Amino acid sequence: MATFLYRLGRLAYRRRWYFALIWVLLLVLAGAGAATASKSSNNDFSIPGTEAQRAFDLLEKRFPGNNEQNASARVVFKAPEGQKLTDPKNKAAVEKVIGELKHSAQVAGAADPFTAQTVNPAGTTGYASAAYKVKSMDLTEDSRSELKEAAQHGRDAGLTVEVGGSVLQEMPEGGSEVIGIAVSAVVLLITFGSLVAAGLPLLTAIIGVGIGVSSIAALAPLLDLSTSTSTLAMMIGLAVGIDYALFIVSRYRAELAEGREREEAAGRAVGTAGSAVVFAGLTVVIALAGLMVVNIPMLTKMGMAAAGTVTIAVLIALSLIPALLGFAGKQVLARKVRKAGPGAKGDDKPNMGTRWARLVLRKPVLVLVAGVLGLGAVAVPAASLELGLPDDGAASKNSTQRKAYDLLSEGFGPGFNGPLMVITDVADAKDPKGAVQKVGDTLKGLGNVATVTPAHFNPAGDTAMLTVVPKSKPTSTDTEDLVHAIRGKGDSLKADTGAEVLVTGATAMNIDVSQKLNDALLPYLALVVGLAFLLLMVVFRSVLVPLKAALGFLLSVVAALGAVVAVFQWGWLGSVFGVEETGPIMSMMPIFMVGVVFGLAMDYEVFLVTRMREAYVHGERPGQAVVTGFKYGARVVTAAAIIMMSVFAGFIGSSEQMIKMIGFGLAIAVFFDAFIVRMAIVPAVLALLGKSAWWLPGWLAKVLPNVDVEGEGLQKQLAEPGASSVTPEADEDRELVKA
Fold first, then answer.
1. How confident is the model at residue 329 (pLDDT cuts 50, 70, 90)?
2. What is the pLDDT of residues 634-652, one digit of tens each?
3. Where is the signal peptide, in residue numbers (predicted)?
4. Residue 569, pLDDT above cutoff 70
5. Is 399 helix (H, G, I), strand (E, B) or coil?
6. Does residue 172 surpass a pLDDT of 50?
7. What is the dihedral of CA 686, 690, 694, 700, to 10 degrees?
8. 585-586 and 387-388 as β-strands: parallel, antiparallel, unpaired?
9. What DSSP designation does 39 have?
10. Which end of the chain is more exposed for a tag (fewer CB within 10 A), N or C?
């Protein structure tokens, strides 16, 4: 592989105009496809194989026109202290707000709380439900403005008016990516000391993300992709795009420092660092594509789209980077290196990576024990992990959604915000109405039930819908127990009446999602870690190095989950990170962290340890190989980790609890993995293992393909008599190098 990539790197360098033109054309074509594609508004969230999803499917079939996917709003009113909503002045204000809502172009209808009987018994709090003709992502700004203006008119009349519902679910605002790119530029400039060298990784990462995201937008109508599919692709594509280019540019500069001609340096950089990029990219693709085992269509599509963007990032690093290096000339070098001129001796003083590696080699046991115990202590809270999906109760206390949620809990009880929808299929029942009555009586007899609404039959009379309001709040374990209790009565009710009882609704769906994700976590871990273990065994031709990499990753992920639990579930340091409300951890968080962090962690492992393996293969002692790996790799791995942490940490400032949690979790996970596992535990383990670290059974060595990531075969080929590392095309650039 190293030999093939070496030739590709030199070809891209020589034919730089062709390669640059190809990637620019691809970007233009993808952009044109995105611009001309019809808008995809598919944001359906389906969970195949769950009872909640079966109930939704039955509801859609038996209750035509009852489109739960369209946007809805719940406008909550509260009368001033000592007054009631039924007072003439307050009632007139409420009716005015409802009248304004009905005149909005995208509103299908709005129910008056007085005629719909949605005022609490005390008469102080009520709500109006508004149904829209379109999904939340298709709402116009005029529709949202009209809703806000109507609510403000109610406030001007002296009422407390707040709004909840899916109508407020807007696309996340941009800006975090810009902050991440700005931080990346600063870090790269410090790392390379050259504007050109710092700009290359940013330019190629943006091109790769542009092609990937535009392709997703262009294919969205054809593949039925949601508007959120590109979110993960953009985040991961930007991260790995910078990382991969960073390592190749860094290796190119190192080759130039050893006196190589520019074309030769480009070829060797792609042949060595490029080989590491290929396998690092494969581990990320495995982790993202493996999300399909969860069997949640939205996650599968997001994972595959992100995997495609990572593949583009790898191809760009291997072909566009050497082409751009050809355009960059000597400007890719730091200014002081250019001024020193050819033949100048570099600073022989050991760099920070070398000094740190030597320190670890002197005290490997101490470093290993301290690292493992430290991460183990941080991981302890993970044992108390509680999963759930956040609702408006987890929103910022200053948001209107949260205020509406609190008003409803105060006026109608904590369970009002999480009603359970019980669908009763009586198509096979001998007495449909009697069967539904029996179901209703059974529900009323269960504990933790506040109210059960009268049954609502569909026109055919073969399906009924009942609403159960729990006494407990939606995210509590008591509500989850109630869902299981209702489902537990299903078999006996079917035996007695012939009716099939299914529980759904947002609360039940959240419970099912949490359970499905929890059940899928171990198989997903086994898949991605198992496949990556085999892949790393091919890369490093070792059994213990991949095993150490996998165990270190698991340690960093569990520690990161522990930190997330401590901050967002227990409330430790909550004020520091702007956590206003503690509660269950988002159900997708563990599996999301496993996929994303695993890919990035293996990036750092491959880039750092490949350089150690290369030094060992070329004759250095195990300990010295570790030092060499840190000498050349620590600086760029540190830069890559800081860039990723900065990008993810930018999301901590979000007002959305879910986004804040993702940003914190990924940032702390990268910190643990890059700086504690890869920078401390890994060299300590390799120092203790010595030559055993690179042990591979003879029979396995014969079975595994030799992909020559460290470039041993390439070095032998270039060392053969008559092998020239300089082509006629390189002569034209000789003067620039000597300048």
1. confident
2. 888 888 888 888 877 877 8
3. none
4. yes
5. coil
6. no
7. -120
8. parallel
9. P
10. C
CA distance 562 to 560: 5
DSSP at 218: H
Place of tokens 């920078």: 679
On the CB side of 480, how many CA atoms lie within 13 Å of its CA?
14
Residues 6+ positions from 688 with CB-CB distance below 8 Å: 364, 365, 368
Q: Are 280 and 674 in contact (CB under 8 A)?
A: no
Task: Indicate if the alpha-carbon torsion angle 180, 184, 185, 190 is positive or negative.
Answer: positive
Spatial separation of the C-alpha atoms in residues 98 and 74, rounded to whole Å? 11
- Contact (CB, 8 A) for 420 and 508: yes
Confidence label for 737 from pLDDT (cuts 50, 70 and 90): very low
As given in the structure block, the two tokens for residue 503 are: 């529980």
Buried/exposed code over 642-651 (b: 16+ C-beta within 10 A; e: otherwise): bbbbbbbbbb
- pTM of the predicted model over 0.85: no
- The length of the chain in residues reads 739
Mapping DSSP to helix (H, G, I), strand (E, B) and coil, where does residue 346 land?
A: coil
Closest-CA residue to 595 (of 381, 386, 382, 283): 283
CB-based burial, 404-423: b 16+ in 10 Å, e otherwise: bbbbbbebbbbbbbbbbbbb
Query: Which two tokens mark 296?
Result: 């949640």
What are the tens digits of pLDDT across the range 385-421?
A: 888 776 777 677 788 888 899 999 999 998 988 889 9
Quote the CA–CA distance of 442 and 489 in Å, as a whole number: 8
> How sure is the predictor about 273, in pLDDT bands with cuts at 50, 70 and 90?
confident
pLDDT at 729 over 60: no
State the average pLDDT over residues 602-630.
85
Query: How many helices (H) and strands (E) would you count in the chain?
Result: 27, 11
Closest of 66, 67, 62, 64 to residue 425, by C-alpha = 62
Q: Which residues on neighbouring strands pair with residue 463, listed in sequence order?
A: 425
DSSP one-letter string for 494-506: HHHHS-EEEEESH
Task: Quickly count: other Cβ atoms within 10 Å of residue 243's Cβ.
Answer: 28
Reduce the DSSP state of residue 491 to 3 states and report it.
Answer: helix
3-state DSSP assignment of residue 463: strand
Residues 357-378: tens digit of each pLDDT: 999 999 999 999 999 999 999 9
Write the CA distances from 449 to 218, 420, 434, 440, 501, integer angstroms.
Answer: 48, 10, 21, 11, 17
Helix (H) or strand (E) holding 88: helix 88-102
Give the whole-angstrom CA distance, residue 205 versus residue 327.
17
Where does 112-228 have alpha helices with state H?
A: 141-156, 176-192, 195-223
123 in the Ramachandran plot: left (φ > 0), alpha (ψ -120 to 50) or beta? left
Nearest to 464 by CA among 506, 507, 435: 435
Burial code (b: 16+ CB inside 10 Å, e: under 16) for 342-377 equals eeeeeeeeeeebbebbeebbeebeebbeebbeebee
Higher pLDDT, 59 or 136: 59
Average pLDDT over all residues of the chain: 83
The residues, ordered by sequence, that sit 6+ positions from 99 with a Cβ below 8 Å of its Cβ are none
DSSP string covering 358-381:
HHHHHSHHHHHHHHHHHHHHHHGG
pLDDT in the model for residue 180: 66
**E strand or H helix at 253, and its extent?**
helix 229-257
Which of 14-28, 98-112, 311-325, 480-494 comes out lowest in average pLDDT?
A: 98-112
Tell me which residue has tokens 């963007």.
309
How many other CB atoms are found less than 10 A from the CB of residue 1? 18
Q: What is the H or E stretch that residue 306 is in? A: helix 297-328
Which two three-digit tokens encode residue 471?
């006494």
pLDDT of residue 422 exceeding 70, the answer is yes
**Nearest Cα residue to 157 out of 263, 85, 233, 242:** 85
